[in-house]
Amino acid sequence: MAIATVTLNDGVKIPIYGFGTFQIPNDGSTVKAVREALALGIRHIDTAAAYFNEQEVGRAIRESGLPRKEIFVTSKLWLQDHGYEAARKGIDASLKKLGLDYIDLYLIHQPYGDVPGAWKAMEDAQKDGKIRSIGVSNMSPKIWNQFVPQFEVKPSVNQVEFNPYFQQKKLRELLKETETALESYGPLGHGNAELLRDPAITKIAAAHGKNSGQVILRFEIQEGVIIFPKSVKPERMKSNMDIFDFTLTEAEMEVMRALDTEKGRHDPDAPGVAEMLLANYDVHADEK
């Protein structure tokens, strides 16, 4: 089964369903998980410098035997490497660790510090063919309005927290202006048991012979959101993909839309976020 793609604002086609590798260790676990994902037909793999597993993602891709052009690879620049020169080095470091000639989508992972300088380096890397598409992550409406008007190239993607309890409605209105796609991390609410047991969702699931997770993922895809649920268990990975043989009715979609609380687990606008992230993730630790 071929997974559908959507065309980003720069003409690049991206699969609507991918596989996220956040918190999968680089002890062979990432190679195994990405290999399983590719075997199931997933062709969109999401990693980051700060996931510390780019090397294993690249290895799994090379060992898959699949043509490079068939696999969509996303990675992200850590905020330690913001500023023009540091970002240029960061991009090259990601390419080297992945062992790839180009990255399909590269994102500003956390939007703090010298974001404009980092973005200019990404624009230049795109012109040089090192990156096909450039985007951002964790940009709230406030942060978007602070930085994006300064960019020459508008982001193709904004990867943010999104699930039925946090539907990012204000942000999505803003993204329409630049035709920027929204990608969801934590599409199942980070395994939120309350969300998975929500009576409105379980009722819809029963009507379709599906589970709550499948209904949630189906809702997100029908909302035009690009998703990449994460699981290292092959049976769960397979179950998460079992969402392309049914469609939610407009009435069911309205029920799902009504679940929005407008609150997520992560607030990019909170004070001290950049400092906390820098203190916890050092992408240059192995160079010291």
Provide a quick synopsis of the model.
This protein is α/β, with parallel strands linked by helices. The chain contains 12 helices and 10 strands. It is 40% helix and 15% strand.
Give the key terms.
alpha/beta; eight-stranded parallel β-sheet; globular; 288 residues
Please outline the major beta sheet.
8 strands, parallel
Uncertain runs are none
Which class of secondary structure composition applies to the elements? alpha/beta
Overall shape: globular
Q: How confident is the prediction overall: mean pLDDT? A: 96
Number of strands: 10
Rg from C-alpha positions? 18 Å
Q: What percent strand?
A: 5-15%
How are the SSEs ordered, and which strands pair?
Elements: E1 5-7, E2 13-15, E3 19-20, H1 29-39, E4 44-46, H2 54-64, E5 72-77, H3 84-98, E6 103-108, H4 115-127, E7 131-137, H5 141-147, E8 157-161, H6 169-176, E9 181-185, H7 193-196, H8 199-208, H9 212-222, E10 226-227, H10 234-241, H11 250-257, H12 273-280
Parallel strand pairs: 3-4, 4-5, 5-6, 6-7, 7-8, 8-9, 9-10
Antiparallel strand pairs: 1-2
Helix pairs in contact: 1-2, 2-3, 3-4, 8-9
